[in-house]
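INTERNAL AUDIT FORM
Audit reference: QA-55
Scope: verify that the stored structure record matches its stored sequence.
Auditor: D.O.
Record contents follow.
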Amino acid sequence: MLALPRILAPSVNIIEPILLQARYQPGAPALCVLGKQVVSYAVLRSQMNNVARRAIACGLKRGSTVVVSTDDPLLEAALILGLTQAGIITISIGILPPDGLSNRSDLRNHWRS
């Protein structure tokens, strides 16, 4: 069996560069969606911190898993990044139908359509 060399990757996650930009270029655009507002790094950092604090206050812990479903891409980014900052695993499932999903078979059928 061929032994592959161990590759050491730097320990940088998606949160660190965002916080670095927020520190040194707070007014620079961080997120932009066509037809919507531009969000600066300072605003994104504030939203991320609020999400992280609220998640922890609700009892979520590092390693918890949360499903994110929203039709607002800026909110979705803030939720995913804030939860990630708190060490919470996120799964984005897009937009659920207005009546929701009542069981697992509904969820499987939703993704097939």
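Auditor finding: record pair retrieved intact. The helical segments are 15-24, 41-57, 73-85, 104-112.
Action required: none
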